[in-house]
Amino acid sequence: MTAAVGIREVTKRFGTDVTAVDNVSLDIVDGEFFSLLGPSGCGKTTMLRMIAGLEFPTEGSIQIFGEELALRPPNKRPVNTVFQSYALFPHMTVEKNVAFGLEMRKVGKAETTERVARAIEAVHMKGMEKRKPNQLSGGQQQRVALARALVNRPKVLLLDEPLGALDLKLRQAMQIELKDIQAEVGITFIYVTHDQEEALTMSNRIGVMQDGELLQVGTPEEIYERPVNRFVAEFIGETNFVDGTATEEDRVRLTDGTVVHAISDAPTGTDVTLTLRPEKIQIHTRGATDINPERNQISATITRQLYYGESLYYELKISGGELLDARLENIPSLRRWDVGSEVTISFHREAAEALTS
Amino acid sequence: MSVQQGTAHRPWVDRLLSVSGWLVFAFLYLPIAILVIYSFSNNRIVGIWGGFTWRWYDRMIHNPEMMGALWNSAKVALISTIFATVLGTMAGIALDRYRKWLGKQAFDVIMYLPVIIPEVTMGAMLLIWFTQVLPISLSIWTIVLGHIAFSTSFVAIIVRARLANLDDSLEEAAMDLYANRWTTFRRVTLPLIMPGVMGGALLALTLSLDDVIITEFVQGPGASLLPVYVFGLIKKQVTPEINAVSTLMLAVSMVLVFISLGFQARSKSGGSNKEA
Amino acid sequence: MTMLDDRPSEEANPELEKKAERAEGWRGFFIALPTYAYLVVFFVLPLLIIVVFSFAERSRTGKPVLGEWTLEWWIKLGEPLVRTVAIRSVWLAFLNTAICLLIGYPFAYWIATRKSAITRNFLLVLVLIPFWSNFLVRTYAWRTLLDSNGLITKVGEWTGLWGKMLFTEPAVFLGLVYGYLPFMVLPLYAAIEHLDWNLVEAARDLYAGAWKAFRKVTLPLSKPGIIAGSILVFIPSLGAYVTPDLLGGAKTTLLGNYIVTQFKSGRNWPFGATLSVTILAVMMVATIIYFRKGGKTL
């Protein structure tokens, strides 16, 4: 099957010394909700703009359903964009904004009217057709921008941090709505965001970018559970890092000599970093005997305790000297520990992963 | 515009500011008011009230030289404004919307010079240029050429500022929605910078109608403009007829002020949504 | 946005990108070209030519003669009469700028700090009207006020404080302040109006008195307005022509009239050219110094 969007060895340089996108290759499957995730300046927006045709790659190929259009201007591409600032034309009404693309493509009057009405209805903006953008709230502008893009029935919809300007509540509501709309229209969404939670909850797959490079592509689970390097592990969710050396397969020796089980394919003797999510750690009384043998055990001291309501955070000092964070769900039977308590912590063999970079 | 916060002054400071403020307004307006009043005075000597009359306006209308100069002024102002607006708008677009082009840096400097150059220098250099270098004889058209040369820059600066405040993504959105360059310009860019373009045009019009110095340098024989003609009259002898024509010129300025305010108000309500 | 039209199915490579950038550059160039050409022909070349002509000999009719060069006109700048006129012009322009700033700042501050937007806008319109009004007409208004029958003269005679001021230096000065005050007020207003007043409140919170807060926060932050306003006043007052001609008469010639005279009754175009170049140079130096100094002292 041809990919909805096929990106081959695409590089974008600005001037001579800024490489915004560095040799990225990526296939985006038809109908998927794909997120490009990364901190600001990582090249994700440039990547999106190249797919939209607003930027011209320095090198490489961009295909949409097998058709090469790396060099094609934006008005001749079967994609539409929802801009970060919405970019609604301030001098046109909602209706005129939504009809703009159809008008440019010389779609007939009757069909235009019908499609515009349907698109406005689909984003729940019925009754606001005659308003100007500055008479709308941020959320409403967002919906109009979405309708204005979708009414053209693009093969791929590009969204550049579309929820960034909304407040938290509205953003969460719009996330769900966006997901629903995507399921309904069934087209490919490429979604640029720096918000890892947004990417995890909405996407079928995520591509994590840093400094112009595509570090990892995978489902939200893969990205969260099996990050390929320190950057991805740290950028997505919270994590602990513990230094060590790979001994044999799936074994790592920590700095104090303790050997723990972890997912590792690093050759024996290489320096690795273990990544261990705070919620995967359990705390036991020192010398507890009822710990599952599948779990690694390390001695630790409680150094700090924070109450978060739905959870409790403990900062722990392990024997090697590193500080770890543990997050325990606040369930009724939860045992509370005082600062200074000598405890044993445990985590499953497959909860920790050894990273070589 | 919102209510100004953090500007609480002690009462006596506030009173002092208010009193001096109104005094400044009195300073700005009293001379004009007196000028207007004496245009209706039935006395040849300006400064001595002689009862109400329309006489001086009547004389003004029936003074063929004055009306000729008025007509010339209107012609020059209109033609130079049209050219300055088109040229200035194009320059503003090239400077703001195109990152790099041949000679852009030099153009950027050249563009600002006419704004800061003293008018006498401008007038003198154009006079020498027209009479000593180019084979052009001075006429109403040399005035037009001169007026375009200085007002184009003002238009360009205003249009450029307007463009700089216009979110690029609006034009990108238009292209993303299948509009080509020209359609994007016509349907999105131009309507959105229109308040700037019109503001620039009004400024060009005002500059042309106000100019005395450059016109004095480059006018041809017998083709004077109203301000220069009036200037000559004042130097000869002050008469209420001058007050009458001055009142007319003030009225034109006022109309232009209110038109420009109208454009500004419109640009605020339908303007850029960059802050959004 | 750079792109290449009509290359539908090719992969990108650096050469094509360069080509697209160049095409975009040419587009910008061609859009600017008409204005560029116009300004070169009717501004840049005349500006260069006037410098050349300041070294030309004078013909019997006063016109410049090319081909015979002289430094006479540049040396003439040192003559006492020319020096007097130049010093008077610079001094008046400087004084005018200072007084306009002194009157204009509290005035603009007063308008900008009115609580309601309606009041502010109304007062602003009252400033805009004289700003846009015909300069000649506004100067003429003072001519009649300062003449023997004028109101100001009458008041002066009645109080015994002053007599007829027309055709004196104070009259020119008064006319300059009146003429250019709005040019000072508008940029000042814009700067003060846009000020973040939270900063002033923060200063007050940090134990600054009202005056200290103004000195340390408001004034420095309105510096761009002060610079813009000063330049807008200084440049035209240095080349003032209408004001000294109408209110000063022959006794208070300023550079502006002096230059015009060279081209008319004075019949000395090359010297007029020299003076024109000089005034331009003075103005540029003043502007640059002001920007430099302004950056440090305020």
What would your notes on this structure say?
- The complex is a heterotrimer of chains A (357), B (276) and C (298).
- Chain A is α+β, with helices and mostly antiparallel strands and 357 residues long.
- Helix content of chain A is 24%, strand content 34%.
- Chain A is built from 8 helices and 20 strands.
- In chain A, a hairpin with a 2-residue loop joins strand 4 and strand 5 (67-68).
- In chain A, helix 2 (94-104) runs parallel beside helix 4 (138-150) and helix 3 packs across helix 4.
- Chain A starts with a strand and ends with a strand.
- Chain C has 2 domains: 2-53, no CATH class; 72-294, MetI-like fold (Orthogonal Bundle), CATH 1.10.3720.
- Chain C has a two-stranded antiparallel sheet with strand order 1-2.
- In chain C, helix 3 packs parallel to helix 7.
- Chains in contact: A-B, A-C, B-C.
- The A-C interface holds A 8, 10, 13, 53-62, 67-74, 76 and C 1-5, 7-14, 16-17, 20.
Specify the biggest β-sheet of chain B.
none
CATH-level-4 superfamily name of chain B: MetI-like
How would you sum up the global shape of chain B? globular
Task: Please state the CA-atom Rg of chain B, rounded to the nearest Å.
Answer: 23 Å
Number of helices of chain C: 13
CATH class of the largest domain in chain C: Mainly Alpha
> Which superfamily, in CATH terms, is the homologous superfamily of the largest domain in chain C?
MetI-like
- Spatial order of the strands forming the largest sheet of chain C: 1-2
Per DSSP, what share of the residues of chain C sits in E-state strands of 2 or more residues? under 5%
Whole-number average pLDDT of chain B?
Answer: 89
Shape of chain C: flat
Do you know the CATH architecture of the largest domain in chain C? Orthogonal Bundle
Main beta-sheet annotation of chain C: 2 strands, antiparallel
Helix content of chain C: over 70%
Topology:
The complex is a heterotrimer of chains A (357), B (276) and C (298).
Chain A: E1 5-14, E2 18-28, E3 33-37, H1 44-52, E4 59-64, E5 67-68, E6 79-82, H2 94-104, H3 109-122, H4 138-150, E7 156-160, H5 168-185, E8 188-193, H6 196-202, E9 205-210, E10 213-218, H7 220-225, H8 230-235, E11 240-246, E12 251-254, E13 259-261, E14 271-276, E15 282-285, E16 295-307, E17 311-318, E18 323-329, E19 342-348, E20 353-355
Parallel strand pairs in A: 3-8, 3-9, 6-7, 7-8
Antiparallel strand pairs in A: 1-2, 1-4, 4-5, 9-10, 11-12, 11-14, 12-13, 14-20, 15-19, 16-17, 16-19, 17-18
Helix pairs in contact in A: 2-3, 2-4, 3-4
Chain B: H1 11-38, H2 55-61, H3 64-97, H4 104-116, H5 119-133, H6 140-164, H7 168-176, H8 181-210, H9 213-218, H10 226-236, H11 240-269
Helix pairs in contact in B: 2-11, 3-6, 3-8, 3-10, 4-6, 6-8, 7-8, 8-11
Chain C: H1 14-53, E1 56-58, E2 64-69, H2 72-76, H3 80-112, H4 117-132, H5 135-146, H6 151-159, H7 169-193, H8 197-205, H9 210-221, H10 223-238, H11 242-248, H12 255-263, H13 269-297
Antiparallel strand pairs in C: 1-2
